[in-house]
Amino acid sequence: MTALQLCLVFSSALFCVGLVGALARSNTILVLLGIELMLNAANINFIAFWRFSPSPAPATGVMFVIFSIAVAAAEAAVGLALVIAVYRHQKNIRLQEANRLKG
Amino acid sequence: MSISDLSPLGAQGGSHVRAVHDEFHGDLLEVSMGPHHPSTHGVFRMIVTLDGETIVKLKPVFGYLHRNHEKLGENTSYLGSMPYTDRLDYLCSMTNNWAYAIAVEKLAGQPVPERAEYVRVILAEITRLLNHTCLAGFLMQDLGCSGTPLMYAFREREKILDLFESLSGSRMMCNYQRFGGCRVDPSADWLEGAKQLTDGYGQFLDEFEALLTGNEIIMARTQGTGVLSPELAVAAGVTGPMLRATGVNYDLRKTDAYGVYPRFDFRVPLGAHGDVYDRYMVRVLEMRESIKILQQALAGIPAGPIMDPKAKLRGFRPKAGEAYGRIEGPKGEIGFYLVSDGSPNPYRYRVRAPSFINLTILEDMCLGQTVADAVIILGSVDIVLGEVDR
Amino acid sequence: MLGSGLIQGLAVTAKNLVGSFHDPARYTNVEYPEVKTKLPEAYRNFPFLVTESASDPMGTLRCVACQICEKECPPQCIYIEKSKDKKPDATGKMQLFPAVFDIDTSVCMSCQICVEVCPFDAIKMDQVFEVATTSRFEALLLNRNQLAKPNTYYHSIHPTEAAEVDGRLAAERKAAEEKAKAAAAAKAAAAAAPKSATAAASATPPSTTPTPKPPAAPSAEAPKPPTPAA
Amino acid sequence: MNAVLIVIALVTLGAAAVAMTLRNLIHSALLLIASWAGVAAFYLWAGAEFVAFAEILVYVGAVSMVVLFAVLLTRRSRADLTVTPDSAGRAISGFIAGGAVCGVLVGAIVATPMGVGSSPTPTVTVKQIGVQLMGTHAASLLIVGVLLTVALLGAIVIASADRTDDSEDTP
Amino acid sequence: MIAAATTDAFLERAPVLLRDAVTGFLPEPWRTLVNALIAVGLILGIFGTLFAFITLAERKILGRVQNRPGPNRAPIPFINKRFFGLSQPFADGVKSLTKEDIVPRDADKVLHYLAPVALLAFSILTFAVIPYGRNLVPVELDAAVLYFFAAGAATELAVFMAGWASRNKYSLLAAMRALAQLISYELPLLLSWVPVVLIAGTLSTTAIVDAQAGWKFGFIPHWHVFTPWGFAGFVIFMVAALAESNRSPFDTPEAESELIAGHLTEYSGFKYALFFMAEYFGMLALSGMAITLFLGGWRSPLPFLEFIPSYLWFGGKLLALIFGFIWIRATFPRLRIDQLTRFAWKFLVPLALINLGNTIVWSLMSNSSALMQLARWPVCAAIILVPFVVLGRKLSAGVAPRIYRYA
Fold it and tell me: How confident is the model at residue B282, as a pLDDT?
């Protein structure tokens, strides 16, 4: 297996860990963290392809990751704010119980 | 419904508060501050219920230093209670002695020579300097100064304690006043020492204030913190600088005009907001007035006996009756209520301890404030646990 | 402007930092075990019993076991047992003496009331303050052998007060001798009326005035062992 | 070279996997931070220094704090930190879905012939990144800036207490 | 650089020469490794010793400020001389090593154990990129400043771990406070050095120090602190650094009078010592970074003082900043946590942002005529001073000395 393939396997494994977490857990915070892991796995792909591409000059992968991290930070902030808002309304953060649109 | 609506009377018992907060707020955290918390001024304990850092309930617990003071007073001779009064408010033994002596003198109809009255005023005002300086130091320690103001305060306190020691033999437990005068006549050297202390104290206060009074952090921390309304203060029987910081003009030195105080020219500083900053500033200004009183008293002290020659030391049996003697102690009105049945021991002996009564409104001042504020509010009340728990 | 008060505070601390190196008014510390400040004359710690002679402390105790101090002591830390026999005191009068005189210094609160009420100047306040021991009970309970200290020691710690007391005692002794002479001449009865507490009280308070008052020796009344008040 | 990568990958994956199965939320969050640090280590390994430090700064320094804050704010007692066990069905279906995706992805990666890029480690200096950000990607930078601002404001609005609504909505 | 190194005095080159003498005979890959190990050992040794004596100096200075001698009793072993208590740190070290390590029964044992280790590890990591002298930077990184703050950002995690794992209500409150405080002050801390990066055009610490070389008129060094934006940035950086290193007046997480010892309440013995050490390391590292960014790094302030080796200049500046930390601690009381965060968000962050704009104005004006060169001083000073006064007024609204009436 080449280094690139190793990186990609690593990234897909991380993606699946995040996916399983997001699907299997019912705690909203853990679901959010799972999604963060999936985003990180995607970033790993960008870096891996940039690192092993035949012509890495333009540093596009790095740019992508920088923007991706910024978006992930925004997502985490909004997501966790939502978690707190949900908690404020229904006194717990179990995903199944957050089933009302209003309030 | 806001936090301020949770009046201390409405929030009887934890269950009510908990019910309210389960609906509207996050979790409540119940913290037991004390009795071995670094800034509870001894062994005071506050059971504080917190919403985040905001206090929604505060239950003071005291009695860890209870020594049966009043019952002891009923089983000890009149003279024998004098050293015990030293140990009430162990920073201000001189004023405690004086208040007790006044009560007994009232009971027995014992006159006091003029020189002794002057010496008593001098010692009481020096005690006020001592107490207020220490309090400012402790308050700043509670505010988080790393000991600096406290050490300056203690440096000056040391000079005062040296004076006390050379006069009465002990630094803190002076046991100096007697019924009908004072135990020892202060020498000319001693009076000169007191004069030097008085003259130098203004300079120390200037430096102390330069360090603290204009400090933005201190102002931000203390202004608007722990506000006490004059109505509540009067209703709760709060006295002393605590009361005057709310703007109520009540100073026993003026209202009772006991001793030789009417002969001295001094003013009573009053606060306007009743917050921690006012309490601190009123004390600082009071110290400056005390210096004025001291200068006048030291200049005008007459010669003469220090003890009434007819005063009895031993076998002292006042006729049956009752008396309440009070003075303006540094912490507030310190009073002793005595009932005599003609025996060598008082039939009833009761202390009106200013720190204890000033402490009763702690919860009202702390509600809605943060933990950090609770500490400085407690500090600004100026308690000594020896007096609170008795 | 924001920060001016802070800078003022910094200036004060800087002044103290520098001042502590050269200004003795700021740096008032004494490093205790090596350097000790002079104790003021009035300083008091625990009581001791005055004896007339250092060589025979038990024989020359001024204490006559009248038990007034035991009664007046607020924390009741004094325990006295009277002797069965009598021995002559300084004035040559036969007196009782304490067979047991214990002070529990773990209870004593150094209030000096025993000194004030003593009509015989027999108990005085000591200035020894380094009294830490390893044993909580035995070592803090002082018996009369440990408590007895000679008059010269009393002079060394409270010179003014001791001089006054000695003068008064000498005057009393003289008065007693004169009175005894007069009594012998007049063949009067020996018993005197129980003396009032007032005389003792006005005579006892020690004074630190630079000009000690001349001992007001009541020539009419020689101090007698007071009949303990009920 | 590959050994370092494998170690990094195993540590990262292990931390992430354990984090996703733990019942103590604080432990989960802290382990996830470890796994993010692992990802940053991977970036360092790959030569993307700037990205690695940015990852640590953003994830370990900021996102983790927000997560921990959220955990602390949304718990009612200490016992609440251990979340109730999830339903077995949900867990099993999650594993099946995750496993399937993993299988497909790994299969595809292994089966695809990759051009063995034996090119030297590309270097990208901070200056290059800066020039690119301000030049080629200036528009994206602006958009991301706006996005972050909006997200921040939105988060504040969402999370800030609106106590007036509370009274009617509480069951 | 090379030319400078050859003309420099022997002392200036001594560290590098010494290292080469020791490791010069080793083959290449080993040599780098050994050099790295030596660097790590030196940093740990020097800063460990510095930590020990700074704790002593802090207590001594605090003592002198408070008109007392400070610790002066610990004798030097075997010769039994006191020497102003110079061996106090070693006595403290022995004490903390031999004290019983108490872990609360309900504590989260693993985290309780990991927290001090993590804190120390992260704070030591930050030492890697500070240039301690000419040619004396342990790791030459392109994004060194970013690395420094990334490693520093992780320390708050350790504080949280400690507070949470202790299972103590005071510790928990402290953990929450620490999080709020560190998040709040991370922002002004980061924003305050952006102008430096903007002007120097690099994130590398050595390049930033090089950008501050030279003197104007032969006696005003080109340090960033001697510009309006640099001075403002320095002050903001130091205030934020005080908060980041939990020093008075921002020591709310371990507020002694409120929270006993905050997150350290349940720590004893060596773990406590590790925390203590890590906090001082954090303070040292932040001071070192402040020197690098604003105070000209290891450069001497005046040309004729250049004969003093660069690392001594760095050390001198470091000690001066540490003295500042101690002086501030000796003077100020503590802010409340809400005032502290308000100060960060409503005062420091806007000021730092304005300072960033200020820097841009500065650099735009620097390319123009001599008149503009001169004019940029008052202009930039005004740009930062006016907001300072206005924001300060708003921040301290309703807080003022009062006039008191007398009855």
Answer: 92
